[in-house]
Amino acid sequence: MRKIVVCSRVSLDGYFAGPNGELHEWAVTDPNVDAAWHELMNPDTILFGRVTYQQFEDFWPKVEKNPDSPKELRKLADELSEMTKVVFSRTLKDVTWENSKLIKDNLVGEVKKLKQGDGADITIFGSGTIVQQLADEGLIDEYLLAITPIVLGEGKSFFKDVHQFEVELLEERDFKSGNVVLHYRTAK
What we know:
Elements: E1 4-11, H1 31-40, E2 43-49, H2 50-65, H3 71-82, E3 84-88, E4 100-103, H4 107-116, E5 121-124, H5 128-136, E6 142-148, E7 167-174, E8 180-186
Helix pairs in contact: 2-3
């Protein structure tokens, strides 16, 4: 069975996004954190909600096509383009980014089918409402979180309105940038 791994930067006070949905503008970035994430998971599929999909679709294809973009970012953009992107949205009419598929309803049922299918890990970047629904159903297997050294004061939490559950720490790594990567498995 395929694993679902949530991969996200999180502020010290527990927010994955700022109050207006900002995903990365506030984070203390560190290429070593990105390298650790790469090392700790092996996805071939990404699950998106509408907002995060549109943010990624607006940014990454431009990076991929821009010869002035840093080499590491272009490589990541290529990887993202090649991955299967499953977008859950009731309001989008279509998805245009390469290898994207739009699903209008039945999030839980569709994700259960994906987990039963063939392939590598499935990951989620951001997409808080997707994480909330899947966490509440016990469908997320691992959390790969980079705690970044900033307090936002307000923002969006992955776990708003989610029932309590336990996780087991698999690994922790700290970085000179002040980021700490915590890798958890959902206790079953």
